[in-house]
UniProtKB/TrEMBL annotation:
Its cofactor is pyridoxal 5'-phosphate. Belongs to the group II decarboxylase family. SUPFAM superfamilies: PLP-dependent transferases. It is an enzyme of class 4 (lyase). This is Glutamate decarboxylase. Keywords: Decarboxylase, Lyase, Pyridoxal phosphate. Its EC number is 4.1.1.15. GO terms for molecular function: glutamate decarboxylase activity.
Length: 463
């Protein structure tokens, strides 16, 4: 009999000659402890590591049933294969991966055309890690343009209180005063009148949102631009508009082609969108485009060698994979205009139908109907006293549905809603199942003596 050293026995237990080397048998994996605070001394087989981490991830929610997120949760197998092939390419190395840079340039051109850029040769744009970084870059350009005017006060940015939190972060990080327009009554986003009322000589810009994350509604971009045009004629204050089209800039060009919100409006200086929302790509890509080079001060732009020439770059992040850009271009190639129109229309059809059915259930009151973004918000009627939206959200979670409940911001903190985001992959069949589960739990909720949630742990709004 050959005696093994303790180290040899440990090696065998972790793989070695053990017949369970793959680690797929739970009895084998049970001997291992995942590191929480420090690395283990020895490695484990790849299959074992995969299984252990995969087991823990089973506790996550099912992404396809997540009706809270705007982020894409389904792509075709071919797109996933392409992304895997490009995961090791660093987007910032444009001289080493020139064709990935070329795909990025093509995507920028495609978006500029979709958004009616007046001179395709004059536009400038780039990919980002998401719409939040894109907003930061747009905000930096607005502030730098304002600083060149030589005004002495503190810069400010006008926007509705329904903006995504990245805009408040921008103001904090870059020392800009956020002038947030609160909600009032049934007005849940920025209006032209309220925007202009907060503008002065130190306003670097107005942010208009094409698709509020609170309720899915479009802000009146054309009205805001027209009001700022009138302000410029009256006072000489020339205040640009940035359109945060994180979601809507990939919906409106296909479903609302006659809606003027983009570069057709001369006052719109820049637009951002999320490729990983209704751009139909997995998380990790956004886009920002300026109508011309004058809208993006040249000192913010750096040039890199690219296919024997120069390519302008503007970014906060540097090392990031080229996979998402390749996937965005794949999606443009794959779908074309008609394909995008069909996919987005299907999402809107599911949203409007589902909203209508929820409205007919009895206890609920719709705030929006999913006919702009494929997103809608609803609350309980005033005479419903046995439960509230937080109870509904908690009970739906028991069946795997992630439907967020949250209160609205300043001036409407009395209003708590549920919001449903319909994305590619959320079908009429899944909507039927949601209605069935909601119908099934309502009698139990109606028998409650009152709402059962703890107000201190109620979900506030999250993106």
């Amino acid at each position: 009999m050959v005696l093994q050293s303790g180290k040899a026995r440990r090696a065998e237990r972790r793989g070695g000659s053990n017949p369970l080397v793959g680690g797929t048998n739970p009895a084998y994996a049970a001997e291992l402890t995942l590191p929480h605070h420090r690395l283990a001394d020895e490695p484990v087989p790849a299959d074992t590591a995969l299984q252990l981490v995969r087991d823990e991830l089973m506790l996550d929610g099912n992404a396809r049933l997540n009706l809270a997120t705007f982020v894409t949760t389904w792509m075709e197998p071919q797109a996933r294969e392409l992304m895997a092939e490009c995961a090791d390419k660093n987007m910032i190395d444009k001289d080493e991966y020139p064709q990935t840079a070329e795909l990025e340039r093509r995507c920028v051109n495609i978006l500029a055309e979709l958004w009616h850029a007046p001179d395709p040769e004059a536009i400038i744009g780039c990919s980002t890690t998401g719409s939040s970084e894109a907003c930061m870059l747009a905000g930096m350009a607005l502030k730098r343009r304002w600083s060149k005017l030589g005004r002495a006060g503190k810069p400010n940015l006008v926007m509705g209180t329904n903006v995504q939190v990245c805009w408040e972060k921008f103001c904090e990080y870059w020392e800009v005063e956020p002038r947030l327009v609160p909600m009032e009554g049934d007005r849940f986003h920025l209006s032209a009148e309220q925007a202009v009322a907060r503008c002065d000589e130190n306003t670097i810009g107005v942010v208009a949102i094409l698709g509020s994350t609170f309720d899915g509604s479009y802000e009146p971009v054309a009205e805001i631009a027209a009001a700022l045009d009138e302000l410029a004629e009256r006072t000489g204050l020339d205040i640009p508009v940035h359109v945060d089209g994180a979601s809507g800039a990939m919906i409106a060009p296909f479903l609302d082609p006659d809606l003027e919100w983009d570069f057709r409006l001369p006052r719109v200086a820049s637009i951002n969108t999320s490729g990983h929302k209704y751009g139909l790509v997995y998380p990790g890509v956004g886009w920002v485009i300026w109508r011309d080079k004058a809208a993006l001060p040249s000192e913010l732009v750096f040039n890199v060698n690219y296919l024997g020439g120069d390519m302008p770059t503007f970014a906060l992040n540097f090392s990031r994979p080229g996979a998402e850009v390749a996937a965005q271009y794949y999606t443009f190639v794959r779908l074309g205009r008609d394909g995008f129109r069909a996919v987005q229309q299907a999402s809107r059809d599911v949203a409007t139908d589902l909203a209508d059915r929820i409205g007919r259930l009895g206890p609920f009151q719709l705030l929006t109907r999913g006919d702009q973004l494929p997103v809608f918000a609803f609350t309980t009627k005033p005479d419903v006293t046995s439960f509230d939206v937080f109870d509904v959200s908690r009970r739906l979670r028991e069946r795997g549905w992630l439907v967020p409940a949250y209160t609205f911001p300043d001036n409407r903190t009395d209003l708590a809603v549920l919001r449903v985001v319909c994305r590619n992959g959320f079908t009429h069949d899944l909507a039927d199942l949601l209605i069935e589960d909601l119908t099934r739990l309502l009698p139990e909720l109606e028998r409650q003596p009152g709402p059962s949630h703890d107000p201190e742990t109620s979900t506030a709004f999250h993106h």
